[in-house]
Amino acid sequence: MNNAKKKKKINRFNVMIVIMFIIFSAIISRLIYLQVYKYEDYKDRANTSARRFLPEKAPRGKIYDVNGNLLATNIQTYVLTFTQTTESYNNFYLTMSKVFKLLDENGEKQQDDFKLEINDKNEPYFDFNVSSDDSKRALEIRFKRDRGLNDELKKKLFPRKQEELTEEEESKIDDELMKMSADDTFYYLVKFYKLYGLLNPSDDEAKKFNKMSGEEITAKLLEKYSMADIRRYMLVKDAIKMQSFSGFKPVTIANINKKDTAFIFYQKLNDLPGIDVTMEPTREYPYGSLASSVLGYVSSIDSSKKNRYEERGYDVSTDLIGKAGIESAYESILKGTTGGTTVKVNSQGRKTEELFKLEPSPGKNIQLTIDKNIQYAVEKTLEERLKYVSTQVYSSSGYKISKGFNATRGAAIAIEAKTGRVLALASYPGFDPNIFSQPGALTPELSKQFFSPDYESFAKQFIAKYNLNKTVDDLFPKDNNGARQDKYDIYPKPFYNYATMGLIPPGSTFKPLTSLAALEEGVVTPSETMADRKYFNTHPDILGSWAPADEHVHGIVDLKRALAVSCNFYYYEMAVRMYLKNGSDKNALNTIAKYAWKLGMGTDPNSNEKASTGIEIGESFGQTYNYDYFKKLALYYQRYELVDALEKGTYGSYSFVPLDIISNEDGDSDKLKDTKQKIKDAIINFIDNSDSTKINSKNLNKLNSDLKPLLDELQDNSKIFNGRIKEYNSTGKKYSHSAVIAAIDQFIYDKNGAINTPAELVNASIGQGANNFTLVQLASYISTIANGGTRYKVHLVDKITDSSGNVVEEFKPEALNKIDIKPLNLQAIKEGMWMVNNASGDGTASNHFINFPISTAGKTGTATYRTDEEDYGRSDYGVYVSFAPVDNPQVVVAAVLYDGYQGNMAAPIARAVYETYFRDEIKQQFPNYQPMFPYTLNPPLEDKKDNSIKQ
C-alpha cells in the first residue's frame, strides 16, 4: 500500500485573499506614508496651492497747484480680475466667453496693453507706442523673448549647446527674432497658449492640434471666430503668463467704468470661476490737459525696463509709472507702497479665509508753484495766438512770406522775478494725461497719432497747403532703417516740451544782454547817440567786405531807443567796440559770453559749472556764442563740407578731379579707409590747431607736403579715384595734385577765417548765429536783469507733504549766481524795455499794451530758422520776453511762436499773464478797465480742493 501523502490542491479563494492582503497592505502603507510621514510636506503644498496674495494698490501721491487745487489725484474704480485655479483653468474658455459677452452688452472694454494688435484688414501688427526705430527694435525683441520665442530659435541655431550663449550668439538670436513678423508671432502664440481649446476638442483632437502649426490652428479657429475674437482670449492667456513671473496673482480683465456693470458681475460670480470684482485707485487729472507739459503722465512699465523696476519693488505687470514731467521726476516720491492680503481660496478662486493683511501706504503729495488760473490764461492765449498767426496770409510786400505760417507749435513760461518760482509753463500742442491713466482711453488711432505719425500723408498736405517746391523725401527724409524723420521740425509734437527742451535762437530778445555787456564794459554810455544805417560797413579793416543789412533804418538812436526799435546797427557796433577793447583776439570773442554765462545763457566750456536752470523736469540747456564752442561746432560741420567739396571736385573758383573720399565700410580695404581718414584729419586738424595769425606759407607748405603722399596713396588704392583720373587724362589733360591742393588751401583760409573773425560775435550781438536757448533760460536771464542781478534756480515744486497734509520738505528760493550791475546801467536797460511796450511809434510791442494800467517792460525777437526757411514752409521764430511792474518787478514772462513771423505776435501772452496775476489790483484800482481777454480778470476754472486734508 502506497502511504505517500497526496498534494493538496491550491485553493483559489486563498489566492484571492493573499492578493487582496497584498493590495490593501500597499494602500495602507501608502496612506500611512502620505498622512503620517509626509503630512507636513503635503499640508504645505495644499496650503500653498490654496493661498493667493491679493495685492492692494497704494494710491499715488497727489499733485496740487500753489493754492491747493488738485491737478492730479486718484479715483476708485471697479476692476474685473481673473484668478487661475484648477476649476477656473478647466472652465477658462466658457468663463471668458460669458465675461466678454457681459462686457460688450454693457459697453465696457477689455483691458488691452497687448502690443500685438489686429488692423482693419485682420492682419497682426506691433504697436509699441514709441517713435524711435531703435526703441521699437528693443521693445519688439523684449516682447518676443518674454514669450519664449528665443528658446525656439536657440534650439534651432545652437541645438547642442548646453552652457549660456555668448553675447554674439544672443545678438544673432535677436536678429532672427526681428525676422519673425507679427503674423509669425501671432501664430506662435496661438499654439503656445493652446487656443484650440476654444473648439472644445476631445483628447484625440487635442493631440492632432498639438502636431499642427500655429498657422494651421489659426485657420481652424477662423472657421468659427474672427482674428479679433482669437486675440481677446490670447490677451488674457498672455496676461496670466506675464503675471506668473511675479507670482500667481489675479490678472486684470477690465476696468469697469459703470457701477451697474460691476453689480451685474457681482450677481453672476458663482457662474464665473476665477472672476472677481475689486476696487483700485486710478490716476485722474481733474483739469484734463491743463499743465500737461508740467505734470506729464503715467503709463505701464516697458518690458525692456522690467528688471530695473522689479528690483525697486514694482509689479511690472500692473503698476504704472511716471513717463514725463513731475510724474516722472518725482516717481519715487509719488509712488506709494503696495499692500495686500494673503488669503485662502476655494476651487473657484473665491476667498475663504484671510490669513494676513498688509495695509498699503499712499505716496507723498507734491504742491507746485503753478497757479492754475495763470496756467489757464497762458495756455488759452498761446493757442489763440498760434491759430491767429496760422490763419493769416500776408502780401509779400508787407511781410516776409505770402504762403501763410505753420504756426502750430509754441511755448510760454511765467516766473516770479525775485524767487525763480514758476507760475505757469505751457507747451503747445499739449495732451490730456487722462488718456494714459483711464482704461481704454488710449485707442489704437490715438496711439498711432501720438507715437507713429503718418509723416508721408502730413507732408503731402503740407506741401499742397504752402505750395512748396519740395517732395515728401525732401521734408521728411528716411533714415537708414527706412523711417521718416522730421528733419526740419515741422510736425507738431504733443509730448515734446517746447518750453524746456526746444532750443531756439533768441533774436533781439538777446539785446538787453548785449546792452548790459556794452554798458558794463564801458564802450558806450546810456546817453551816447549814433546814426543808424542800413548796412553795417563801418569796419572793413575788421570785417572785410561782410556788411550785414537791416531792412529798417531808425535814424538817431541811443541805447534806450535802440532797444525800443530793435536797432541791429547799434548792437553790431557794440560788438565791434567790445572786441577792440578786449584785445582783438580770440579771447576778445568771448566778451559777451562772459556776461551771458553769469545770466545762465550757457556755461563756460572750460568750467565745471552745471548746465541747468535748476528746473526739476527734463530740460535742454543752450549755449551762447563763444570761441571754443563755436570752433568745435564749426569743425564738426566743416568736416562734412570738406568731404562734399572733395567728392564734387569743386570749391570756390577751383575745379579738380573729384576725390573718392567718402567712407565705404563694406567696399573699402583697410588701407584705403586709413588713407581717407588721414586726409580728412590732416586738413581739419590743421584748422583746429591754427588761429588767424598762424596760417602762413611755411606751415601751409608743410601741410601740403604731407598731403601729397596721401593723395598718391588714394590714387593707388582707390579704383574709383584712379578711374576718374584716367577719364580726366583721356581728354588730353594731365592730372596733378596741384589743383586739389590749391582748393584745400583756400578751404583752410576760408574756414579758419570763419572761426577767428569777429563776424560771429557781431551776429551773436543780435541773438543770431550760434546762440540757441530754451525758453526757461530766456525767462531766467530776463528775471536776473529785472531783479537787479540775482539769478535764481528756476523751480516748479513748492513743497512735499504726507497724506495728511503735513509738510515733509519745503523748497525756498535758491540763488545760483550774482552779477553786479551799475544802477544807471540797469535803469537804462529797464527804460529801453519799457519803451518797447509803451513808446507809441517806436516800441515794437506797444500796440499790445495800449491802455494797460500796470507798468510793463518787454523785448521782441524775430529769429531766423535758416536762410532758406520759406522753401521748407518755415518762418521766423516769434519770441517775446517781458516783466512787470517796471519799478518793482514781480513777474517775468517769455513766449515763443514757432513760425510766428514776428516777436510782437507773442506779446499778448504776457498781457494775459499780467491781467490774471494783477487782477485783484486792477479790479480795485481801475474798475473801468476792459481786459483784452475774457478769461483773465475772472478766471473760469472752478477750484478743486482736496477734502481729505486741511487746506
From TrEMBL:
Database matches in InterPro entries: Beta-lactam/transpept (IPR050515), Beta-lactam/transpept-like (IPR012338), PBP_dimer (IPR005311), PBP_dimer_sf (IPR036138), PCN-bd_Tpept (IPR001460)
Gene3D superfamilies xref list: DD-peptidase/beta-lactamase superfamily, Penicillin-binding protein 2a (Domain 2)
Domain of life per record: Bacteria
A GO MF term: penicillin binding
Transmembrane residue ranges: 12-33
Protein topology in the membrane: Single-pass membrane protein
Penicillin-binding protein transpeptidase domain segment(s): 410-614, 751-915
Localization: Cell membrane; Membrane
Ranges where the Penicillin-binding protein dimerisation domain occurs: 56-354
UniProt-listed SUPFAM superfamilies: beta-lactamase/transpeptidase-like (SSF56601), Penicillin binding protein dimerisation domain (SSF56519)
Biological processes per GO annotation: cell wall organization; peptidoglycan biosynthetic process; regulation of cell shape
Keyword RNA-binding included in the entry's annotation: no
Any one Pfam family match given in the protein's UniProt record, by short name: PBP_dimer
The entry's keywords: Cell membrane, Cell shape, Cell wall biogenesis/degradation, Membrane, Peptidoglycan synthesis, Transmembrane, Transmembrane helix
One cellular component (GO) term of this entry: plasma membrane
Family that this chain belongs to: Belongs to the transpeptidase family.
Name assigned to this protein: Penicillin-binding protein
